[in-house]
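Fold it.
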Amino acid sequence: MKLACAALAVTVGLLAPAPARAADTPQLARPTGPHPELVRPTGHQPVGTAAIHLTDTSRPDPWVPGSAARELMVTVWYPAAGPGGRRARYMSPRESELYLAGKRITDLPADTLSRVRTYAYTDARPAGRAHSLPLVVLSPGYTQPRGTLTGLAEDLASHGYVVAGIDHTHETYAVTFPGGRIATCAACELTEDDAFFRKLYAGRAADVSFVLDRLTGPKPAWRGSSLIDASRIAMSGHSAGGASAIAAMAGDPRIDAGIDMDGTTRGIVPSGGLSRPFLFLGTQAEHSPGGRDVSWDDDWKRLTGWRRWIVVAGAVHGSFTDLTLLADQLGIDLGATITGTRSLELTRRYNRAFFDRHLRHRPQPLLDRASPRYPEVIIAAR
C-alpha cells in the first residue's frame, strides 16, 4: 500500500496537471539501477554550465511580504571549448531531499536526484565568436526546479545555443543560494486559483526580463555573455513555465519566439493578439483542440503570427521534462505509452526545430507536416 501511495503522489503532485483517474494509477517497481542518468546530447559541441546568483533590487519578492529584493538562481548551459573537469550536479542531496519530501515521495532514498548523471561540465570555458550564439530561456513548471529541464538544455547547448534556466524563487521546494542558504516554497501555502496563477505568470515574466537584462546588458552577470546575440532570443517553458512564456513575450519585445509545453494558459494572450511565432506542444489527452483544457482553444485564436499546435500521443504531463525518463529508470510507471527516452527525444527535436526556424531562419519541414520518424506527433492546427 505504501508503494502504491508513493507512486500516486508522483503522478498527481509531480507530473499531472489534474488528478489522476483510478485507471491511470501507476505502480512502483524495483529501481533498475542506483544512478539514474540523462540522455547524451545529440549535438557535436561539448556542454559547459555555470550557476549564477542574481538580485533584482528594483522589486520585492512577490511571495515574501516585506522583502527588499527578488533573488534568483539561474543555470546557464553553453557550448564549451572542450569536455573535461567536473560533471555538473543535477541537484544537491539537500535539494533532492526537500523536493521528494515536498512531493510526498517516501519510497526513494532522499538523495536519489542528486545522483542523476548529467553531460555538462561545471564552469568549462565557453566557446564561440562574439555575439554569435542565440539565447533560449527555460522556465520550469510550478513547484519544479530548473534542473528538471536539464536534458533539453544540454541538447540545445550542444547545438550551439546559450540556454538560461531560471529557478523562480519560492515557487519550488528548494532554491540554494551561495553559502548554502535555501529558499523554500512560500507560494505552496496559498490557494491555487486563477488569480494565483496570473500573479505567478506576471512574476515570472518580470524574472525573465531581469535575467535578459543581466545576461545581455552593459554589466553582464556571466563571463560568456559576450557570445550571446541579443537580437536572437526565445523562450520555452513547461506547464506554468510554458504559460509564462506568453506573459514574458507580451511584456518584453526582446523575446522573438516562444513555446508552451503542456501549460494551461488561462486566457493570458493579450486581447490585441501576439504576433510573434508561438508553438503549443502538449499531450494529446489533455491538449488536443476541443480537449479537456479549453484554454488553448481560446488563446489560439489570439495568436496572430506564425503558429503551430502540436500534440504527442502517449505522452503525459511530465513527458516534456526529464521526469518521465528518470521515472522509467527508477521503476515508476506513470501511465505514458511512450518511454521517457522517446519523449525526451521528441521534446528536444521539436524545440530545436522551432528555434532553428525562428532564430536561425533555417527551413524546418518537421514543423509543417507529419514525419514518419515521429508518428506519435500530430500537427493539430496551424
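The two ends are 46 Å apart (CA to CA).
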